[in-house]
Design goal:
The chain has 178 residues and is an alpha/beta fold. It has two domains: 11-141, Crotonobetainyl-coa:carnitine coa-transferase, domain 1 (Rossmann fold, 3-Layer(aba) Sandwich); 149-178, no CATH class. It contains eight helices and seven strands. It has helices at residues 20-30, 60-65, 79-92, 104-108, 112-118, 143-150, 155-165, 167-175, and strands at 11-15, 34-39, 54-55, 58-59, 69-73, 95-98, 123-126.
Length: 178
């Protein structure tokens, strides 16, 4: 007997790539939601190629972020395919997660206002690098850029500098048992 999960009756459409939206979808899928990942034609999510390491022919990070999901290929620039996706969202979706380039969902008619006018129960989650307001709101970005903006990328260099200044301490720490 399998225990019920809290989101068993929830359907999520994920219009996402790379890390942010797939990670959100991963969490909802782990909680039992039916997550349908929409991928572009010509290779799908770019994270499929973020390797090594590979696992079963695909990047391990892609496999991890996209477990517990269904996947469909949709050409968002094709009006017929976009209309089929819109019908799926209107008729079946409880949640939509997207991290597309700023302005793209509005251009395609897949923005919150347009979709919620046709599906009032839809929870719409738009993930952007710089938020919805402010001087950088319309700028694209993703995880490595945010690491750089936040200073995270400088930490390895600082650690190397510290090790260089404290060689005896570095040797003793490296030799210490785990």
């Amino acid at each position: 007997m399998t225990a019920a999960t809290p989101l068993t009756d929830i359907t999520v459409i994920e219009l996402g790539h790379s890390v942010a939206a797939p990670y959100a979808g991963e969490i909802l899928g782990d909680l039992g939601a039916t997550v349908i990942k929409i991928e572009k034609r010509d290779g799908g999510d770019d994270a499929r190629q973020w390797a090594p390491p590979y696992w079963h022919g695909l990047a391990a990070i892609f496999q991890s972020l996209n477990r517990n999901k269904l996947s469909a290929v949709v050409d968002l620039r094709d009006p017929g395919e976009r209309e089929l996706l819109t019908r799926l969202i209107v008729e079946r979706a409880d949640v939509l997660i997207q991290n597309l380039r700023p302005g793209m969902v509005e251009e395609l008619g897949l923005d919150a206002a347009t979709l919620r006018a046709r599906n009032t129960r839809l929870i719409y989650c738009g993930i952007g690098a710089f938020g919805r307001a402010g001087p950088l709101a319309r700028r694209p970005g993703y995880d490595p850029l945010m690491q750089a903006f936040g200073g995270l990328m400088s930490i390895p260099a600082l650690v190397r500098q510290w090790w260089a200044r404290e060689p005896e301490l570095a040797k003793s720490l490296a030799a210490a048992p785990p």
